[in-house]
Design goal:
Radius of gyration of chain B: 20 Å
CATH topology of the largest domain in chain A: Rossmann fold
Number of helices of chain B: 11
Largest sheet of chain A: 6 strands, mixed
CATH class of the largest domain in chain B: Alpha Beta
Shape of chain B: globular
Number of helices of chain A: 11
Strand order of the largest sheet of chain B: 6-7-8-3-9-10
Order of helices and strands of chain B: EEEHEEHEHHHEHEHEEHHHH
CATH superfamily of the largest domain in chain B: P-loop containing nucleotide triphosphate hydrolases
Strand content of chain B: 15-25%
Number of domains of chain A: 2
Largest interface: A-B, 33 and 35 residues
Number of strands of chain B: 10
Number of strands of chain A: 10
CATH superfamily of the largest domain in chain A: P-loop containing nucleotide triphosphate hydrolases
Oligomer: heterodimer
Strand order of the largest sheet of chain A: 6-7-8-3-9-10
CATH class of the largest domain in chain A: Alpha Beta
Distance between the termini of chain B: 47 Å
Number of domains of chain B: 2
Helix content of chain A: 25-40%
Structural class of chain B: alpha/beta
CATH topology of the largest domain in chain B: Rossmann fold
Chain lengths: ~280, ~280
């Protein structure tokens, strides 16, 4: 079942001088099982949008349909707890929310809270920790003494331990080193392959290009563009129009075209691009 | 003249394992040097050691000709400024103006000179319009620019950026990188930037790569990235242009080692027209 937003608005601090319309009349549909990127400038409504998915924020008006629930203004949805289990939300800098004495306890907290027995919760926690690349030597350590990248993995393991069907990520790799970010993205890609619906807020176009299937561009509280990745990165014109730096490969294709080379719109990897160039260089010889 | 000389520097957080071990490097005065490496490679530790925020276990640090020790710690701190990663953790003043003034007050600059100094450095980071705003209401990039102005007002000779752009959005990152480039162009300031941003690295003068507390490689970006095997071995990311050249080489097109995309495209056209 797809996720649907129907005429959803969200107003912060309504009735005060700080009233701020973060989402305005949003209509959109997110395909089940897809890896969708939500992009847009700071303040465009990306984070507000995704925080509706597990009813962390309720719409000021309109309806959000997630799985078999409806989220509407004013009332907490029925079966809220199971919604929070099914839709895992990873905040920006989630490592700030670690609180337990040990890594294992922190990760097991979620499943325990949702009714798993202690043994079951620990088992789920261990599985989730392995998935994020943390072995058993981490289990009894305090989450607070870990490095930034390790803390991030513990926080994400805490969400994965609940086995969410929908995974919502708000800039999950911000502040990580390139190697750590890559590992993290590969984890999300593998969860997506296993059938999880993944929705990721990001500023990183290389990640969008490489891992995502669909893209939603937010602007001033509304989706401005929603399309598949191939269409979005066909050439750099859409990115330029949106004032986004296109991925390096797309910039390279642009630069080659400018010099008179022919490059197919469908080329999305370095190897194919190298073959295309080589063919033309050899025909000149 | 060297702005920074580090000799066999060693440090341990827990007295057991060394977070930084036998690190030796020097940084040219007036240069723009980046320090790269994974999380946990010792980059930030090195930055804290050369500013005396952490105390070394052994080795020698010379800043601007002065050896770092207890006696001249404060003299060295005057000469080195540091901009940290999290823009929210470095504000003291209730307005941008107060925040820039804070360091000046600490150094007993007379009140009548302060306004000029504040205006001068707010202008340098293009924040003049925001002098009376609350820092908390600014964007991440603006906050970092205020932090930079506050540090510049202290007239340091060396400015260290410790992942100062990594928590910012693309617009904020661009703002800060532009400020850094302009500072490098217009002043004799020595700039040291700890970064993961490969685009920033290839446009700096020098780069030092750390791995597991040791210096793994150093040189100009061109020199460092030319050794692609070694770069891979220490698990650093290769710039796009070099990955593209490797793919082209597999197709029988062997170009020089260009680290920028513009350079690569030019090189390719030259190669193509010679055939």
């Amino acid at each position: 079942m797809p996720i649907r937003f129907e005429k959803v608005s969200h107003v912060y601090s309504d009735g005060t001088p700080f009233r701020y319309v973060a989402l305005e009349d949003v209509d959109l549909e997110i395909r089940e099982g897809a890896f969708t990127a939500v992009i847009g400038q700071t303040g465009s409504g990306k984070s507000t949008l995704v925080q509706h998915l597990n009813a962390l924020l309720l719409p000021s008006s309109g309806t959000v349909y997630v799985m078999d629930r409806q989220i509407i203004a004013g009332t907490e949805p029925k079966k809220l707890k199971s919604l929070r289990k099914d839709v895992g939300l990873v905040f920006q800098f989630p490592e700030y929310q670690l609180f337990e004495e040990t890594v294992l306890k922190d990760v097991a907290f979620g499943p325990k809270n949702f009714g798993a027995s202690p043994e079951e919760a620990n088992k789920l926690a261990r599985e989730a920790l392995r998935k994020t690349g943390l072995d058993e030597t981490f289990e009894e350590r305090s989450p607070l003494e870990l490095s930034g990248g390790q803390k991030r993995r513990v926080a994400i393991a805490g969400i994965l331990a609940m086995k969410p069907k929908v995974l919502v990520l708000d800039e999950p790799t911000a502040g990580l080193d390139p190697a750590g970010a890559k590992k993290m993205m590969e984890l999300f890609a593998s969860l997506h392959k296993e059938g999880t619906t993944v929705i990721m807020v990001t500023h990183d176009m290389e990640q969008v290009f490489r891992y995502c299937e669909e893209v939603i561009v937010m602007e001033n509280g509304k989706p401005k563009i929603q399309t598949d990745i191939k269409t979005f990165f066909r050439d750099s014109s859409l990115c330029r129009e949106l004032n986004i730096l296109p991925p390096a490969l797309i910039r390279m294709k642009d630069a080659l075209r400018e010099k008179g080379y022919t490059v197919s719109d469908d080329t999305v990897d370095i190897k194919t691009l190298a073959k295309e160039i080589a063919r033309q260089v050899k025909s000149h010889g | 003249m060297k702005a920074v000389e580090v000799e066999k520097l060693t440090f341990s957080y827990d007295q057991e394992t060394n977070a930084v071990e036998d690190v030796t490097f020097s940084i040219e005065e007036g240069s723009y040097t980046t320090i790269i490496g994974h999380n946990g490679s010792g980059k930030s530790t090195v930055a804290k050691l050369i500013t005396g925020l952490l105390e070394k276990k052994s080795g020698k640090v010379v800043i601007d000709g002065l050896e770092l020790n207890e006696d001249n710690l404060y003299e060295i701190r005057k000469r080195v400024g540091i901009v940290f990663q999290n823009p929210d953790n470095q504000f003291i003043g209730s307005t941008v103006r107060d925040d820039i003034a804070f360091g000046l007050e600490n150094r007993c600059i007379p009140q009548e000179n302060m306004d000029d100094i504040i205006n001068e450095f707010a202008e340098k980071v293009r924040m003049t319009k925001y002098l009376d705003k609350e820092p908390t209401r600014l964007s991440g990039g603006q906050k970092q620019r205020v932090a930079i102005a506050g540090i510049l007002a202290m007239k340091p000779k060396i400015l260290i950026f410790d992942e100062a752009t990594s928590m910012l959005d693309p617009q904020g990152k661009d703002e800060i990188k532009k400020v850094i480039r302009n500072l490098h162009k217009d002043s004799t300031l020595t700039i040291i930037s700890i970064t993961h941003d490969i685009e920033e690295v290839i446009h700096a003068d020098y780069v030092i790569a750390l791995r597991k507390g040791h210096v793994a490689m150093s040189g100009t970006p061109q020199e460092l990235f030319a050794d692609t095997d070694q770069v891979r071995k220490i698990h650093l990311e290769l710039p796009f242009a070099l990955r593209m050249q490797e793919a082209l080489a597999r197709e029988g097109i062997h170009l020089g080692k260009e680290i920028t995309m513009e350079g690569l495209v030019e090189e390719l056209c030259r190669y193509d027209s010679k055939r």
